[in-house]
Write a structure and sequence with these properties.
The protein has 252 residues and is α/β, with parallel strands linked by helices. The longest helix has 19 residues. The chain has eleven helices and nine strands. Helices cover 46% and strands 15% of the residues. The strands form two sheets. Strands 1-2-3-4-6-9 form a six-stranded mixed sheet, with helices on both faces. A three-stranded mixed sheet has the order 5-7-8. It is globular.
Length: 252
Amino acid sequence: MSDILIHTDGGVSTITFNRLDKKNALTEAMYSALAEAMQQAASDDAVRVLVIQGDASVFTAGNDIKDFLEHPPTSTDAPVFRFLRQLVTFPKPLIAAVAGPAVGVGTTMLFHCDLVYAGDNAAFAMPFVNLGLCPEAGSSLLAPQLVGHQRAAELLLLGEPFLAETARDIGLVNRITAPTEVNALALAQAQRLASKPMSSLLETKRLLKQGQQAALLERLAEEATVFARMLGEPAAREAFTAFMEKRAPQFH
């Protein structure tokens, strides 16, 4: 069975992370499938709304570290960066249903969603600094815009987890519900949107995002360049080695 499931019905396309044995950790192949699925949804007239979801127990643990080390994203054409560009440029309503852990890109992708619904067990984290890396997915631009510099610095410099209530308070999440109900809530909202005039949905989203896309694509490219460089530096090597050896990293 595929690690990424895609289902389309009634104008709503749903992308489901389906790698529960690995906490939906994302591999290079999964990023490639995500980028292709989003590109297809953007161009398919039968798709009016896109939903990204995981399981009631976990959204995604972020990058699969073993796969990440075997296939590091050292160029801006890497599958992960193709997926991130699709998030920035996706023209139709985009909804996320998040339950359980949403780590790294599992949190940063939400900045690009139009609606986000969370289970009361959701736990978000952007631990890039703790891994000797820098922010990605345009989060260095979007987080300060959403929550202000100080709160964004707290989230990105300390990299500590925050829960669903905090995510709602800072404006990252629209509504909190039971973990077993979050996917159904997202689907119901997607169906409501799909019943509306497509031209109105497209133009409203375009106007909401107007003036931001060029800056975001520029920031994505800069983050990707810095991220790729930092992957080869001692801090990242120590962080990932410590992770694989199940010990605390020693940064000097």
